[in-house]
Design brief:
The chain contains three helices and seven strands, in the order βαβββαβαββ. It is an alpha+beta fold. A seven-stranded mixed beta sheet has the order 1-2-3-4-5-7-6, with helices on both faces. This is Acetyltransferase, gnat family.
């Protein structure tokens, strides 16, 4: 598997099919996809895009750290789940984020993804909440290991 930087538009098909299949395709275009400092990664297996993840220099209203990054749209093709795609995307993204000087990474993790993030050192913050049309989530964070 190879992890490479991709364009925002290259994330949208997998985002739509995996994360928001019941919603209009336009819902796979996220705010800040083209914000300066944002980057998108793709996981390729034999030159075929099999997973995506996006990373934004975006602040959470709840987290006080000045240098933050947000993870969104981590998704792998159905046949590629549990094969390390998400872990590889996350590890590559984290390495880049820490190089950029972030103090903390955060995400709104779907209930089904909480265990995945916990396995990678993320911690739940507060109580679960519902994002309408998507479902129950937890705010999760990971502190830069070089800062702690």
């Amino acid at each position: 598997m190879e992890i490479k930087q991709i364009k925002a538009k290259d994330t949208q098909d997998i985002r739509h099919r995996v994360l928001r299949p019941e919603q209009p395709e336009s819902n796979a275009i996220y705010p800040n996809d083209d914000l300066e400092g944002t980057f998108h990664l793709g996981a390729f297996e034999k030159d075929i895009l099999v997973g995506v993840a996006s990373f934004y220099p975006e602040k959470s209203a709840i987290i006080m750290a000045p240098a933050q990054y947000r993870i969104r749209g981590v998704a792998a093709e159905r046949g590629m789940r549990l094969k390390g795609v998400g872990s590889a995307l996350l590890a590559t993204g984290e390495t880049e984020i820490w190089k950029r000087g972030a103090e903390i990474i955060w995400c709104n993790a779907r209930i089904v993804a909480v265990g995945f993030y916990e396995k990678h050192g993320y911690r739940r913050v507060g109580k679960s909440f519902v994002i309408p049309g998507i479902g129950e989530h937890y705010l999760m964070t990971k502190v830069n290991p070089l800062e702690s």
